[in-house]
Amino acid sequence: MAKIDIDALIEPVLEYLPNRTPDVWVDMALENQETILIDHATNELKAAQQAMTLMARNPLNMDIQNKMSRLAREELVHYEQVLKILKKRGITFRTMKASGYAYNMAKHIRPDNKGKLTDNLIIGSIIEARSCERFHKIAPSLDDELGQFYISLLKSESRHFKDYLTLAQKYSEENIQDRVEFFLKTEDESIMQPDPLLRLHSGVPTADYRV
Fold first, then answer.
1. Which helix (H) or strand (E) is 209 found in, with range?
2. Of the N and C termini of the chain, which has fewer Cβ atoms inside 10 Å?
C-alpha cells in the first residue's frame, strides 16, 4: 500500500475551512470514543444516502451520476468498516440524536431547483471537508488501529469535498463564491458555538454536554 502524503491531502482542506476544530472538542471526543465511532458510522451512511438522493434527483447529469455513484460506494465501505470496528471493540451500534450541524446549513437551501442543487453540493463539500479536518486532528491521539484508519480516510474525504465543489460551480448559473462563503460562515458558527451534544460534527461541548 502506497504511503499517504498527509500534508498534501489536508492542505487544501485547511485552506477551504475558515477555522480549526477547538481543542476542547478533541479532548471530549477522546474521552467518548464510543460516541464518536457510533456517530461516525451514522454519518457515513447519511453521506451515502445523500449521494444517492442527488443521483435520483439528477438522472440526466452524467457527471453527477458518475461522481456520486463512486462516492456512495466509498461511503458505504466506510460505514461497513466502522461497523466492524464497533463489533471488534464490543460496542453496540445504536441510533443517537443528531447535532444541529447539518440542519443549520440545510435550512438556508434555496427552494428553486438550480439553487437547491448548488446549495446541496456546497453543503456536501463543507461536511466532507470538516470530516477530513477532524479525522486529521484527532488521529494522532488515538490508538494505532483507529488512528491509522482515520488517516486512511483522508484520501477519499479530501477528494469528495473537491468533487462536490466542482459540481456546485458547474451547475450554478453564477459564481458560487458568495454562497460558499455564506455556508462556511454558517458552518463556522456551528463549530465554534457551545453545543449540548457531542458528535463527530458538533460545536464546543458545554459543561453539561450529552453523548
1. strand 204-210
2. N
